[in-house]
Amino acid sequence: FMGNEIAQFIEWRYYEGIEYYLTEEYPTHAHQQVFIKALNHFYKNHPGLWQYAYDNRGFDWIDADNNEQSIISFVRHGRKPSEDLVILINFDVATHQNFRLGMPSAGVWKEVFNSDAKEFGGSGIVNTKKLSTKPVAWNGRDYSVELSVPPLGGIVLAFEKELPKRGKHGRK
Q1: Residue-range domains of the chain with CATH
Q2: Of 63, 76, 114, 117, which one is least surrounded by beta carbons within 10 A?
């Protein structure tokens, strides 16, 4: 709704303008504006979020039942597997290091969006290293990764490439 992009204190009123001055006086409002702008660009540039928006092919739960940690995770599918995105949202104030997450396919994944990034006013708990899947079954899937989960945050992972093939003796 109008004004949400800057986190106005009060609901927008049709007879007044949006309080854009808040972004100059309060860092949290400026961070919100940067976050919403980045989120809009991210949405536009990632077809996995909108190609199958009204179709069951566009969504697949990874874990909808993690009530102990208050974390949900799911896959948004695009027309091509390379457009798939894994989304994880933590609804709790707890940070989780080495959190294991089942993945839709084996390979190297990278974090492409994190609501806890410093530029959005977050604490900066981000996954800067690439995440290679391991053949550890988790969440009903054959492969999984370990990652850091920020408090009260959401992260998005994108498939980057397949794992290198190994020879007979385990060498690349």
Answers
A1: 4-45 (no CATH), 55-161 (2.60.40.1180)
A2: 63
Q: Look at phi and psi of residue 89 and say left if phi exceeds 0, alpha if psi is from -120 to 50, else beta.
A: beta
The mean of the pLDDT values for the chain is 92
Does residue 72 contact residue 66 with C-beta atoms inside 8 Å? yes
DSSP string, 17-65: ---TTHHHH-HHHHHHHHHHHHHHHHHHH-GGGTTTTTSGGGEEEEEEE
19, 8 contact by CB (below 8 A): yes
> Within its chain, how far is the Cα of 94 from the centroid?
17
Q: Which residue has the tokens 């457009």?
A: 83
Output the CA–CA distances (angstroms, integers) from residue 122 to 5, 80, 118, 155, in the order listed: 16, 32, 5, 12
Residue-wise pLDDT for 51-103, tens only, equals: 999 999 999 999 999 999 999 999 999 999 899 999 999 999 999 999 999 99
**How many residues does the structure list for the chain?**
172
CA angle 138, 122, 83 (to 5 degrees): 45
